[in-house]
Write a structure and sequence with these properties.
Strands 1, 3, 4, 5, 6, 7, 8, 9, 11 and 12 form a ten-stranded mixed β-sheet that branches. The chain has a two-stranded antiparallel ribbon with strand order 2-10. The protein is α+β, with helices and mostly antiparallel strands. The protein is about 55% helix and about 20% strand.
Length: about 350
């Protein structure tokens, strides 16, 4: 019985840890991406409406800048690229006059110049590469000079590379194309709320560029392709966790109740109602589910801590304790325990006490 319970706990814990780790990873990514928008002053993100690989003409930026509600619109390209044989990094393509430079602090060197093979490296990435201003680095077959090391509020930038937009377009074969336009809005007029200005700007942008979708920064941070895929996988994982938990705990409870029929019959003979015996079984099943969930939640957080310490994933994973995710995981584990105990409890209390005791 003890061994069977340990196996059940291990199964629930594994499923729960996968859920906590995956959902925590997704939440960290969204949180860090939101910090990029907040620090840079981006209020609206404009990207192609329906596509797996977002791509807009760079020339559309001029039309955005002419809109009454828009103060500035800057193009941006983003790619994942190899910076060493075993290390990948996010590479941002910006214009030299982009307002997004307010999201970073140059701690050594200078800002790059458009049209030049120059890059700026986040301090976390510079530390991992042991590189400094003036050093050379090869990215996707192109040779670049590091002209600055910068500090950023978001891990998605502090472990990244920023280069001139035209250089990244040339490197990726996307001349004249950008992934997104980041928009900063004008100040609200008297009597106009920020929410009204935001809604009006969205309508203006989508009217002028029908193929694009204008989303507030917070919505864009949670709706990018990576987050959407990860959330879908996390939802599937939670269902798997629930099914595995139900099967595992149910199997343990069925075996346990089969061995305790006489005990339950004696309790019934002593005056316990069938409902009271069922509640006892449900409490035991719920305890198995919750204990497995606690072990799995701790393991899942441990996975996040390890990922946050690995250079390859440190830029997109936070080691902060995902309290909300842990509560969700424990709720799933509790539900699995309760559901798995129902059928065994009903079967185990179905026998007539006198008949069972007579057999014993």
């Amino acid at each position: 019985m003890r061994f069977r319970s340990l196996i059940t706990l291990a199964g629930v814990a594994i499923a729960t840890s996968a859920y906590v780790a995956l959902v925590g990873f997704t939440g960290s990514f969204e949180h860090e991406w939101m910090k990029v928008y907040t620090a840079g002053g981006t209020e609206i993100s404009v990207a192609q409406r329906v596509t797996l690989m977002p791509s807009l003409d760079e020339s559309l930026g001029a039309r955005l800048a002419e809109l009454p509600s828009v103060q500035k619109a800057t193009p941006m390209l983003l790619e994942f690229a190899s910076v060493t044989t075993d290390l990948n990094a996010i590479v941002y393509g910006w214009k030299a006059d982009s307002f997004e430079f307010q999201s970073i602090q140059i701690i050594a060197g200078r800002r790059f110049r458009d049209g030049s093979p120059e890059i700026m490296v986040g301090e976390d990435l510079a530390r991992s590469l042991a590189k400094a201003v003036g050093d050379k680095i090869e990215i996707q077959g192109g040779n670049f000079t590091i002209v600055a090391v910068y500090r950023a509020a978001s891990a998605l930038q502090s472990a990244a590379v920023i280069m001139p937009l035209d250089q990244l377009q040339l490197l990726t074969g996307k001349q004249g194309k950008v992934a997104v336009f980041h928009v900063k809005l004008r100040a609200p007029e008297p009597g106009e709320s920020p929410e009204q200005l935001l809604a009006e700007a969205q309508k203006e942008i989508e009217r002028v560029i029908p193929q694009a979708r204008a989303l507030p920064a917070a919505a864009r941070a949670s709706s990018n392709q990576f987050s959407s895929v990860a959330r879908s996988v996390a939802a599937g994982t939670s269902m798997i966790a629930l099914v595995l938990g139900i099967l595992g705990v149910s199997n343990t409870m069925i075996m346990s109740i089969g061995e305790r029929v006489g005990e339950f019959a004696l309790l019934r003979a002593l005056g316990w109602s069938r409902r009271r015996v069922i509640v006892l079984v449900e409490i035991e099943a719920a305890a198995l589910g919750v204990l497995g969930g606690i072990c799995g939640a701790a393991a899942g957080w441990g996975i996040l801590v390890c990922l946050a310490a690995i250079p390859q994933t440190a830029g997109v994973v936070s080691s902060r304790f995902p309290a909300a995710t842990v509560l969700q995981a424990l709720s799933i584990s509790l539900l699995a325990g309760l559901l798995s105990g129902i059928l065994p409890a009903l079967q185990g209390t179905h026998n007539v006490p006198a008949e069972v005791l007579k057999c014993d």
